């Protein structure tokens, strides 16, 4: 009999297993994939953006999405970015800050995986991998009614019994490295509600004639301000990000689009300011008074040349020297560039999404322990829960913090 069986040896599962094992619990960690922690390995361009220094634990809604982002406050305040940094430092793993508080390993994400495996070994954690899971059953209590119940877990290495069952099987993104809907199916088996799932931190796609002028811009990147009207919980609010935008063959990507994708509602437009650092209308009207250059050439002061060239092709009134353009045409041009409204037709889906929005409804979980309120001994941690972080290390911080909260309670 194990104290805990943890399903999923990714970020949350490994960390939870290590912490619980180090508390003296008998822990079995099971994963169906051949390789451990594949998402850590591929994250952050191979260097894993493992946390973010700017996380404000008093205001989780600033960096987390979900029906109730406040749910993650308790766990995040009991295991902070500083706690994970201290662990990295104890293991001598050098790291650096890149952009907006994002912390990366200097050498490789492999160092973080090795650290988590060493922490598991220090806790005497058994790991079965690859190992397939079959049926899971719960026995409410033993004959004398003294125990709270136990889980019988069928695996291809035999059936095991555990006092607690922790589900750390992550979300649906990148199925080719082992993502499955296991966690959601198990939640349903035990009668837990789910918040609808969809791809998050994902490139957005555009089809048809409306996209034609921009299709030639694939590979071009520039800093923008991007915003969308977001339904956050029961409220509607405007979300805005200042980040880089990348044109792709099928649409738009880059940090700006990945961030806004987690708030975007299908069928609604994005608003993009392609030159957020200047008042384009004032600049163009001032240039008209002093310059005879083509409008496209003037635009190159504030925009990449390829974008300026493609943009002016959309209207004959913009394809002339700036001193010969009407004020109206310049005002329209400035408006179109600083308030570009465009409606995505879809997303690149789970094969390109970094995360899954939605998941196990937090209403049914304890925010202190991650245990189901209606099912004793069953815990959900990490991405399988309806908590999704912004780009920038917030998703791993949620994995570490929810794992820690659970491990303390097992
Ligand atoms: P995770 O996905 O890590 O682990 C789940 C585990 O469960 C896997 O090992 C899987 O094999 C296993 N499993 C699934 N189904 C199973 C089944 N049926 N039976 C047994 N085992 C099963 N975040 C961040 O903060 N910084 C970053 O730099 C990045 N970068 C990044 C890049 C890319 C390309 C992706 C796809 C994602 C990121 N992320 C990220 C997001 C981050 O990787 C993600 O949020 C965490 O890995 C979630 O941790 P979990 O432990 O919850 O799931």
TrEMBL record:
<dbReference type="InterPro" id="IPR023166">
    <property type="entry name" value="BaiN-like_dom_sf"/>
</dbReference>
<dbReference type="Pfam" id="PF22780">
    <property type="entry name" value="HI0933_like_1st"/>
</dbReference>
<dbReference type="Pfam" id="PF03486">
    <property type="entry name" value="HI0933_like"/>
</dbReference>
<dbReference type="InterPro" id="IPR055178">
    <property type="entry name" value="RsdA/BaiN/AoA(So)-like_dom"/>
</dbReference>
<keyword id="KW-0274">FAD</keyword>
<keyword id="KW-0285">Flavoprotein</keyword>
<feature type="domain" description="RsdA/BaiN/AoA(So)-like Rossmann fold-like">
    <location>
        <begin position="3"/>
        <end position="408"/>
    </location>
</feature>
<protein>
    <submittedName>
        <fullName>NAD(P)/FAD-dependent oxidoreductase</fullName>
    </submittedName>
</protein>
<dbReference type="InterPro" id="IPR004792">
    <property type="entry name" value="BaiN-like"/>
</dbReference>
<dbReference type="InterPro" id="IPR036188">
    <property type="entry name" value="FAD/NAD-bd_sf"/>
</dbReference>
<feature type="domain" description="RsdA/BaiN/AoA(So)-like insert">
    <location>
        <begin position="199"/>
        <end position="355"/>
    </location>
</feature>
<dbReference type="InterPro" id="IPR057661">
    <property type="entry name" value="RsdA/BaiN/AoA(So)_Rossmann"/>
</dbReference>
């Amino acid at each position: 009999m194990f104290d805990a069986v943890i399903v999923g040896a990714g970020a949350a599962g490994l960390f939870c297993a290590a912490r619980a094992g180090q508390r003296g619990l008998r822990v079995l960690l099971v994963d169906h994939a051949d390789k451990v922690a594949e998402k850590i390995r591929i994250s952050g361009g191979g260097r894993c953006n493992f946390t973010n220094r700017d996380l404000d634990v008093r205001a989780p809604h600033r960096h987390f999405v979900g029906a109730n982002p406040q749910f993650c406050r308790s766990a995040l305040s009991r295991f902070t970015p500083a706690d994970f940094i201290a662990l990295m430092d104890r293991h001598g793993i050098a790291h650096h800050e890149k952009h907006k508080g994002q912390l990366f390993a200097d050498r490789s994400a492999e160092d973080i995986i090795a650290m988590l495996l060493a922490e598991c070994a220090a806790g005497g954690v058994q790991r079965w991998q690859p190992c397939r899971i079959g049926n899971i059953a719960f026995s409410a209590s033993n004959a004398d009614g003294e125990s709270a119940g136990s889980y019988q877990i069928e695996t291809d290495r035999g059936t095991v019994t555990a006092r607690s069952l922790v589900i750390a099987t992550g979300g649906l993104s990148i199925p080719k490295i082992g993502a499955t809907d296991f966690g959601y199916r198990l939640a349903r088996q035990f009668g837990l509600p789910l918040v609808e799932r969809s791809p998050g931190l994902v490139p957005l796609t555009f089809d048809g004639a409306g996209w034609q002028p921009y299709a030639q811009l694939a590979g071009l990147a520039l800093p923008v301000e991007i915003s969308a009207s977001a339904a956050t919980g029961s409220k509607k609010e405007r979300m805005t990000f200042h980040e880089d935008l990348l044109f792709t063959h099928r649409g738009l990507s880059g940090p700006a689009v990945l961030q806004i994708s987690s708030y975007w509602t299908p069928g609604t437009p994005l608003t993009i300011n392609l030159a957020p650092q200047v008042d384009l209308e004032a600049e163009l009207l001032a240039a008209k008074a002093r310059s005879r250059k083509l409008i496209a050439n003037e635009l190159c002061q504030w925009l990449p040349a390829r974008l300026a060239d493609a943009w002016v092709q959309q209207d004959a009134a913009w394809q002339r020297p700036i001193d010969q353009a009407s004020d109206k045409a310049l005002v329209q041009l400035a408006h179109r560039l600083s308030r570009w409204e465009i409606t995505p037709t879809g997303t690149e889906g789970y094969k390109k999404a970094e995360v899954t929005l939605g998941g196990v409804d937090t209403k049914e979980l304890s925010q202190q322990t991650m245990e189901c309120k209606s099912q004793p001994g069953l815990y959900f941690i990490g991405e399988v829960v309806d908590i999704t972080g912004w780009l920038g290390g917030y998703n791993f911080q949620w994995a570490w913090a929810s794992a820690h909260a659970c491990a303390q309670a097992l």
